[in-house]
């Protein structure tokens, strides 16, 4: 197979590159907005690709003729989406549409679109793939519009909804766990909300789950997340415990007190049965996921596989 990944420098993109590089012998074309890449292993090809530029996307897709396109590129900063709605729409919705247009011309080409629990309002958990979406943020609206664009297209699609992604990689943006660890390292007291609950998801596991979905030729919507529902405050205290910090540095707060620009769903707990039964894979719970992450930090091995040829075959992050 020929697989094109967008946003390959992001957290999930890096993990996908690792997992697909290790588990398959498919041709992998990694793309991202950056002109140059840190992926130096000969297992990967890299091309700069800004998915908001239709002409570039058309030529790249027509040239590579992928069997699968995995679209991880997105504006993932929920508050930034609220503040720059046009920019969020261009990337999260039009970007996917730009991929659909040339994909339609390639027989059998499938698109894997990464979506989010933020398509739900979080008032009626737990959420299955059949639950009715009702986003309360602009980010959520843009992710739902992208889902609908893929559904309405003639292209075969897998919509992977996930949430509270965590992990480490080479120069990746901060995520909830990374932020909590940074705060704990500083040693000052800080507050975390008790009224936002969901299923933390280890990025390495999510990438492996996406590999399984592709491999098993699944189609349609899948909820893919860690098995455990937990509020952010309790999760942050667990992070402190696993990483050996003082959990009492973290104090409880409400979303109203913290004052984020975008509304968040209070409880977007997922039902993940469809994915688990069809793919025969269950993602790590928080105890296991955080211990694995701590090990990755200790070994400093989170990204060396991408940078150093000799280590690639022994990667074990999946
Ligand atoms: N993070 C979460 O908790 C979470 C939860 C649910 C769903 N998701 C979804 O999961 C997917 C992956 O998330 P992630 O956390 O891995 O994201 P990420 O780390 O922010 O990675 C996104 C990548 O896309 C790149 N990019 C930005 N604009 C681009 C463009 N115009 N064309 C091509 N690439 C572009 C980014 O580059 P720059 O960094 O240089 O901008 C970055 O390398 C996203 O679709 C997100 O919506 C994430």
What layout of secondary structure does this protein have?
Layout: E1 2-6, H1 11-23, E2 27-32, E3 44-48, H2 54-64, E4 68-71, H3 78-83, H4 85-103, E5 110-116, H5 138-152, E6 156-162, E7 165-166, H6 176-186, E8 190-193, E9 197-198, E10 201-202, H7 203-215, E11 220-223, E12 230-231, H8 232-242, E13 250-253, H9 255-258, H10 273-279, H11 286-299, H12 304-307
Parallel strand pairs: 1-2, 1-4, 2-3, 4-5, 5-6, 6-11, 7-10, 8-13
Antiparallel strand pairs: 9-12
Helix pairs in contact: 1-7, 2-4, 4-5, 8-11
The structure holds NADP nicotinamide-adenine-dinucleotide phosphate (NAP).
NADP nicotinamide-adenine-dinucleotide phosphate binds at residues 6-7, 9-13, 32-34, 49-52, 72-74, 76, 91, 114, 116, 162-165, 172-173, 175.
Structure description:
The protein has twelve helices and 13 strands. The protein has 318 residues and is an alpha/beta fold. It has one domain: 3-Layer(aba) Sandwich (Rossmann fold), CATH 3.40.50.720. Residues 308-318 have low confidence and may be disordered. The structure holds NADP nicotinamide-adenine-dinucleotide phosphate (NAP). The site of NADP nicotinamide-adenine-dinucleotide phosphate has 28 residues, from helix 1 and strand 5.
């Amino acid at each position: 197979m020929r697989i094109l990944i967008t946003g390959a420098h992001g957290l999930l993109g890096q993990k996908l590159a690792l997992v697909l590089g290790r588990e398959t012998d498919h041709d992998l074309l990694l793309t991202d907005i950056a002109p140059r890449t840190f992926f130096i292993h000969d297992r990967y090809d890299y091309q700069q690709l800004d998915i908001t530029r239709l002409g570039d996307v058309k030529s790249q897709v027509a040239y590579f003729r992928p069997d699968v396109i995995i679209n991880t590129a997105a504006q993932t900063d929920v508050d930034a989406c609220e503040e720059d709605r046009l920019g969020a729409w261009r990337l999260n919705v039009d970007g996917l549409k730009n991929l659909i247009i040339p994909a339609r011309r390639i027989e059998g080409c499938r698109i894997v679109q990464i979506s989010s629990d933020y398509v739900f309002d979080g008032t009626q958990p737990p959420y299955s793939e059949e639950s009715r979406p009702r986003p309360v943020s602009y980010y959520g609206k843009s992710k739902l519009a992208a889902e609908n664009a893929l559904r309405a297209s003639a292209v075969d699609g897998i919509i992977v909804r996930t949430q509270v992604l965590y992990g480490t990689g080479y120069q990746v943006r901060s995520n909830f766990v990374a932020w909590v660890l940074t705060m704990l390292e500083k040693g000052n007291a800080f507050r975390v909300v008790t009224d936002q609950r969901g299923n933390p998801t280890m990025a390495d596991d999510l990438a492996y789950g996406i590999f399984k979905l592709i491999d098993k030729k699944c189609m349609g919507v899948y909820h893919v997340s860690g098995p455990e529902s937990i509020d952010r405050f309790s999760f942050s205290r667990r992070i402190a415990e696993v990483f050996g910090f003082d959990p009492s540095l973290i104090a409880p707060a409400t979303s109203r007190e913290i004052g984020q620009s975008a509304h968040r769903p209070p409880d977007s707990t997922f039902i993940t049965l469809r994915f688990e039964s069809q793919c025969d894979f269950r993602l790590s719970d928080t105890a296991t996921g955080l211990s694995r992450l701590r090990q990755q930090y200790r070994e400093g091995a989170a990204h060396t596989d991408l940078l150093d040829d000799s280590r690639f075959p022994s990667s074990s992050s999946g």
